[in-house]
Amino acid sequence: MPDAHALLGPSSSYMWMSCPPSARLNEGFEDKGSEYAQEGTLAHRLGELRLRAIYEGIDVTAELEEVRADPMYSASMEEYIDDYVTFIGERMAEAKTKCPDPRLFIEQRVELGEYIPESFGTSDAIILADGLMDVTDLKYGTGIKVDAEGNSQMRIYALGCYLALSWAYQIDAIRMSIFQPRIGNISTAIISPDRLLAWAEYELKPRAALAWEGKGEFNPGEQQCRWCKIAATCRARADYQMELAAHDFAQPPTLSPEEIADVLTRLPALLSWADQVKEYALDAAINKGERFPGFKVVEGRSNRRYGDEAAIAAALQGAGFAESAIYKPRELLGITAMEKLVGKKKFGTLAGAYIVKPEGAPVLVPENDKRPELNTAAKAADEFKEEM
Q1: What is the value of pTM for the model shown?
Q2: CATH code of domain 2-213
Q3: CB under 8 Å to 281, separation ≥6 — which residues?
Q4: Which of 84, 132, 223, 356 is the most exposed place for a label (fewest CB within 10 A)?
């Protein structure tokens, strides 16, 4: 996305607002990207083209053919973008009840320099109607459910849209929506222009100034460290994680429930940090010749594999082995791969009646997890009665 090139872009705002020095420390590090990011970019492009064809009357046939020829394109992507286009259509229909000529801005670049130095962003879809501005952000990933309420990225997009476009309509409220089709999440928050401008003046602007100057306090935490490029080597984060050592690694029975809860709360971030340190050290040792006292780079374990399956099959069959003996029986693709091939909705229609979902094993999660709590003691008692 275009705002990825701004030092203080909206997409990284939670990081630099929570931990202002991190912005400058991340500067200059290459953004390696990922297959998931490339897939998301392709989905955004598909969504943009579909919307432009409908609402701007542009012939996008050639561009759509190019997108659909991409190896990352799939039937399921088309379905999910169908949902996104339908959602925007519903919002446009609602806007037409407020005024006869609502405007839809697609992939609209907004300037943010009034509050964030040299910053800009691109909003996926903005609908302007009398009294209401609608700002929608398409998120194609499946990893994390994102909430629009209090979301700094959405507020910054809304701010940029308001500054750029509010001259055309009387805006009494701004509705910010995060649309995540692959996990079925639509999160919406509404804010007044006065409240948004006050937040921008008294929270966003001071934090942005600190981040731009590389000043402020370090504030490590699971969410702000997730995408930080120096997370593996940040001393403040290391100190934060090593506070677990204050428990002296006592055996769990000697810890109080409160102490165990503290360990459980910190554990995901601790494990993530440990993995990042390992990945950083391996990359530095292999690619930069860095040496870490007490460690060396060696060849890892590997499994044998066939170099030429056809030649091996021919040799075995020539020796008298039957084809049925040397080949596996045919096997269906996994459910996720099948949904990608067929399309999630179509696959559900065709085969949903034959899909079973076993009961999951109990797991311990934070109280704010959306899943209902299990009464494990009662369940164990029922199972005991059944066995008896």
Answers
A1: 0.75
A2: 3.90.320
A3: 232, 290, 292, 295
A4: 356
